[in-house]
Specification:
heterodimer; A: 420 residues; 2 domains; globular; B: 230 residues; mainly alpha; Cytochrome Bc1 Complex, Chain D, domain 2
């Protein structure tokens, strides 16, 4: 144990004793309604609650009503072509509840009747196919947990700290377990011709969004999913079927998937030319920047999740991920990136999935510049924002995976800041 | 595990299971369908949905429209959001202008200043426009609209220019050479390291910017104004 660790542990024990003494002295300090607190019997113990099936589809407690997706109205011209953000600061573990997964639509939520939905596979294939949802479900199934991140996640932060909350700075990401059919299985069923090198994938929404996907990725790990976290996809996530492209930018994960066309060249659609290309300082833009680089963020404490307990034992909780494999390690800094301490990975560490990390320490109540930094199994280390800007400038919009800094103030409030 | 190894492992696994059904599937994998689930789409079904277009013109339908025809259609269907000259109203997309802005502090990425291929305009407009009324125009009308958008960007300069399968595929866009393949693996090679630095990595830092000072974060019940990001 290092000197700092043992010092920290001693001061934590001392602080713990102090907290216990405080609690004894002031029992009502936690607030609330004393009539429901010991020694009294609370109201929910005195009477019966609602019976079974009164809530046929369960919802979170009414006391959790603020745990919701939010949008930033000034970002876009209309809500139908816009984005809402996952409340990362309120979530734990690695699985995002279906109703809280961020949304990105280009033509609103298509309310597709599964009886009328068709998936067509044609182009450079031996046997063109048209499938109903029920037919798709007859193919062998796979279950995979993957994160899905919009390439524009953190895109508002290129020019400096702008949005005060990790929901807004990092909330264009979610991670669920998908059930569906390996795209490879369907492509083998259709029989891709030898000159079939690219797929056009297209949705059935009012934007009929189309993208080009290289055949290597299509045959590797893509899935046509119809379930998320065990239940049918939610309409805003592409019900009744969507494409899952593990580790690659969310825009490729076409929702309401209706058509796959095999061709010998990419299509250069609007979403892979005008959008989702990364403008560099020399005026040239990178195209086909599909994979999402390793990235991490501390979800709590963060601006929407301040430290309310004062000094003492403190849990730093965060998420790390990589589009290129598994998370290898995460380090946490309390001083804006000068010194780092290894974080503890807890729960499953899966390929191209969110990974939960913790750093537990004894906070002495002094201001902190909190950061997290991930290294993935390829050796890639999450860069600082300064390192990223040095190469990419500030106009590339997409792929901002720079290290986030949260300024924890003495009163426990947290602010999104930039440091240098 | 490499892909080929995975494949070998899967094949061995399939062989190990001697169930006749699996053996049958394996035998069929190369020569034909394995599952026989679903049917072949009819030519009509494919024709109705096969609307994508490539830079070399593959996929462009028969039809035609002129800049002048497109101008009227644009005023009726597009100008409310995009502005009469493609300048964009409010936060709706700007379609024209922005030439020479890509290296500036405020790049304006339009059809003329940024889009590498004219086919993309046709593909996108037919897929997604008019906004809220997708696919409501005829092929001739889409040709005319795209002709007008190209005219707004000085890609074509004659009001009587007729856009069709042939003329569209021949158009060269000003920024076609403005794109490079994803080069992160080489240009950002320094981000791959053996062991990340743990101690005294940089000089002590100070706060140089604060989101709170900009004050654009949404809060329930509060109006916020942006400084703009796009």
């Amino acid at each position: 144990m290092s000197k700092t660790d043992s010092q920290s542990r001693r001061s934590f024990l001392a602080a713990g004793a102090g907290v216990a003494a405080t609690m004894l002295a002031r029992p009502a300090a936690a607030g609330g309604n004393p009539a429901n607190q010991p020694p009294n019997v609370p109201e929910w113990t005195k009477s019966l609650g609602e019976g079974v099936a009164v809530r046929p589809y369960g919802k979170p407690s009414k006391f959790e009503k603020d745990v919701v997706r939010r949008d930033v109205e000034w970002l876009t011209a209309s809500r139908e072509s816009s984005v809402s953000f996952t409340p990362l600061h309120e979530l734990e573990g690695i699985i995002t509840p279906n109703g809280l997964c961020f949304e990105r639509h280009h033509g609103g939520i298509a309310e597709v009747d599964p009886a009328d939905h068709r998936l067509m596979i044609h182009g450079l294939v031996e046997r063109p196919l048209i499938l109903t949802l029920e037919e798709l479900k007859r193919y062998p199934r796979v279950n995979r947990i993957h994160f899905m991140e919009c390439a524009a996640n953190s895109g508002m932060e290129w020019r400096g700290a702008q949005l005060n909350g990790c929901q807004f700075t990092h909330g264009m990401i979610h991670c669920v377990q998908y059930t569906g059919v390996s795209l490879r299985t369907l492509l083998e069923e259709a029989g891709v011709k030898t000159n079939g090198k690219w797929l056009l994938v297209e949705g059935a929404d009012a934007a009929a969004m189309d993208r080009s996907l290289p055949i290597e990725k299509a045959l590797d790990d893509c899935i046509i999913a119809y379930k998320m976290n065990g239940e049918a996809l939610y309409p805003e996530q592409g019900y009744p079927m969507r494409l899952v492209v593990p580790g690659w930018q969310g825009n490729l994960w076409v929702k309401w998937l209706r058509r796959i066309k095999v061709g010998d060249q990419p299509w250069h659609t609007r979403e892979e030319t005008s959008k989702y290309t990364d403008l560099m300082p020399n005026g040239k833009a990178r195209r086909f920047t599909w994979s999402m680089d390793a990235k991490s963020v501390i979800t709590s404490p963060s601006p929407q999740a301040p430290i309310k307990h004062g000094k003492g034992f403190t849990i730093v909780s965060g998420l790390a991920w990589s589009g290129n494999g598994k998370v290898k390690r995460v380090d946490v800094s309390l001083d804006g990136g000068r010194n780092w301490w290894p974080a503890r990975l807890d729960g499953p560490v899966l390929d191209k999935a969110l990974t939960r990390f913790y750093y537990e320490f004894d906070w002495n109540g002094e201001p902190l510049l909190l950061q997290s930094r991930v290294q993935d199994e390829t050796g890639y280390v999450q860069p600082s924002k300064a390192e990223l800007r040095k190469i990419r400038g500030v106009n590339s919009i997409y792929h901002n995976n720079g290290i986030q800094t949260w300024h924890v103030q003495a009163n426990g409030e947290v602010e999104n800041v930039e440091v240098a | 595990m490499s892909k080929s190894l995975k494949f070998v492992a899967a094949a061995l696994f399939a062989c190990a299971l001697s169930a006749p059904a699996l053996a049958q599937q394996k035998a069929d994998a190369k020569s034909g369908p394995r599952y026989h689930i679903g049917r072949a789409p009819t030519a009509d079904e494919i024709r109705g949905w096969d609307i994508d277009v490539r830079p070399d013109g593959q996929g462009l339908p028969e039809g035609k429209g002129t800049v002048a025809q497109g101008e009227k259609l644009f005023m009726d269907n597009c100008a409310t959001c995009h502005g009469e000259f493609g300048e964009g109203n409010g936060r709706w997309p700007v379609l024209a202008g922005g030439k020479g802005s890509l290296t500036s502090d405020n790049p304006v990425k339009t059809v003329g200043s940024y889009w590498p291929y004219a086919s993309t305009v046709f593909d996108y407009v037919r897929h997604a426009m008019p906004y809220g009324n997708t696919g409501s125009l005829s092929v001739d009308e889409y040709y005319a609209l795209v002709a007008y958008v190209l005219y707004l960007n000085d890609v074509v300069t004659d009001q009587n220019f007729e856009l069709n399968k042939k003329t569209l595929a021949a158009i060269k866009m000003p920024n076609e050479q403005g794109f490079v393949m994803d080069d992160r693996a080489t240009s950002e090679k320094s981000f791959w390291q053996k062991d990340p630095c743990m101690k005294d990595c940089i000089a002590p830092v100070k706060i140089t910017g604060r989101a709170a000072a900009i004050d654009v974060t949404p809060e329930d019940g509060k109006e916020k104004k942006s400084r703009g990001v796009e």
